[in-house]
Amino acid sequence: MEREEWLNQMREKIEQLYDRFSPLYWVKFGLQPNEIHMEYLQKFLEQLNPSSTLLSAGCGAGRYDGMLLEAGHSVVGIDISDGMLARAREQFPNIRYEKKGLQEMDYQQEFDGVICIDALEHIFPEDWPVCILGFREALKPGGILYFTLDVSATAFLEKEYGKAKAKGLPVVYGEVAADVDEAFKKVMSMEYGEVPDDDLADQAAYHYYPPVDKVRKWLDQVMFTIEAEGMGRWYRHFIVRKK
Fold first, then answer.
1. Do 50 and 72 contact (CB within 8 A), yes or no?
2. Which domains does the chain have, with CATH numbers?
3. Residue 75: count of CB within 10 angstroms of its CB
4. Does the pLDDT of residue 191 top 90, yes or no?
5. Which pLDDT band holds residue 30 (cuts at 50, 70, 90)?
6. Could you report the per-residue pLDDT of 34-56, keeping only the tens digit for each?
7. What are the C-alpha distances in Å from 84 to residues 99, 110, 214?
8. Rounded Cα distance, 11 and 23, in Å
9. Distance (Å, whole) CA 167 – CA 51
10. How far apart are CA 5 and CA 163, in angstroms?
11. What's the rounded Cα separation, in Å, for the pair 141 and 78?
12. 101 neighbors 77 (Cβ within 8 angstroms)
């Protein structure tokens, strides 16, 4: 299978998974955000002017959008899942939500700040530079971007790369997709109301883990300055400013 066709299939599966389980999102996660995410989100908010206009990119069900509203800002949210956007609209009817992938951002200096939390792990290597540039173009001069980078151990990535290549998948190093097809079928066949455990849910969706140095290089290439960077349990956190 050609890589482009395979990647299209991976994206379709991601969208279907989030649509399928979106009605259970608040049941599973509630309204309790991750503590480290909250810490960095607060740092992001501290660098904004009052009544800023913000983009919540890959917003999902709007898990962190309420904090942006409570801080007095106006918000636009985008995501590829109709189901997750429906959940977000239920929680935050005052936010304008649009169906749009991170790769399709076409905003031009419309936002004072952008957040992208726990979403970039589903972005393909070819699309990472596109997304980083899209964030920059969406921001006004001096605008702030906060995003999370999913990280994983080298031994795990090497194992997953070997498994995928053995199955003939057109992967590059850092992609985790060897078990997607089998896990996806299991998850999609579950009865309504059932929630897959975290391991099965992860296996059912494509993930890519770019090297941190490569991410820093992409940021530098489009003139972002790193204001803060740190590591949580599963994610590396970046707060960067458009030069």
1. yes
2. 31-151+211-242 (3.40.50.150), 154-203 (no CATH)
3. 26
4. no
5. low
6. 789 999 999 999 999 999 999 99
7. 10, 24, 30
8. 20
9. 52
10. 20
11. 21
12. no
Three-state secondary structure along 88-122? HHHHCCCCEEEECCHHHCCCCCCEEEEEECCCHHH
- Reading the block at residue 176, the tokens are 């985790």
114, 59 Cβ separation under 8 angstroms: no
Give Cβ neighbours of residue 217 (< 8 Å, ≥ 6 apart): none
- Separation of alpha carbons 39 and 53, rounded Å: 20
> What is the model's pTM?
0.95
The string of pLDDT tens digits covering residues 163-188 is 999 999 999 999 999 999 999 999 99
Taking the CB of residue 201, how many other CB atoms lie within 10 A of it?
15
Rounded to whole angstroms, the Cα distance separating 71 from 192 reads 36
Tokens of 21: 């389980």
Query: What's the CA gap between 230 and 238, in Å, rounded?
Result: 7
